[in-house]
Amino acid sequence: MEKSAWSIELELDPTIVPGGDAAFTEMLGDELPRLARIARLLVGSTDAADDLVAEAITRTLPKWREGTVADPPAYLRRVLVNLAHRRWRRRRLAFQRDHASLDWLQPATDSEARATERDRTLHAIAELPARRRAVVVLRFYDDLPEAEIAQVLGIGLGTVKSTLSRAIEQLREKLGTLEGS
Question: How far, in Å, CA of 122 to CA of 143, rounded?
Fold first, then answer.
């Protein structure tokens, strides 16, 4: 697995996480690539995702030092999702797709078709409301069970189930079925 800029910076600069927090640093080294990918899926931008991960770490470290964080990876994910949600609320990100340019393109090869479908799916996910997007990303990308998603987001299990159901229906409407309808 490739090292991100964050893991390299953590190894080289002991002032970021002092030696007394070796367990936190070790856990962070294992979780950082996963957190970065989740953040990218949540906000759609690598730069914004890096900022989100940095902010999540900054907010988690004092809690870790106080001893109030029982499960640091889950806590980091929850902070990350909450920060992303706040970012969506503030900026009301809107992604628009331009399909007009696709009309004149040559028929796609299999890899081109997969790439186009992947982009189409990512754009559809990006257009979901904040909570639905968070539930979809945590369920299908991070492969968390619904009960853990409820815990991470601080909502009820029934809310997770209904939110996931509505998100899937919205994605079906946007993307159609696999048969092309």
Answer: 17
The Cα–Cα gap between 119 and 98 comes to: 12
Residues in the chain, overall count: 181
**Residues of each domain in the chain carrying CATH 1.10.10.10:** 110-181
What is the DSSP annotation of 103-146?
A: GGSPPP-HHHHHHHHHHHHHHHHHTS-HHHHHHHIIIIIS---H
User: pTM for this structure?
Assistant: 0.47
Distance, CA of 22 to chain centre: 26
Query: In this model, does residue 144 exceed pLDDT 90?
Result: no
Give backbone dihedrals phi and psi of 14, rounded to 5 degrees, phi first.
Answer: -70, -10
Question: What's the CATH fold of domain 110-181?
Answer: Arc Repressor Mutant, subunit A (1.10.10)
Q: Which two tokens stand for residue 84?
A: 């992303």
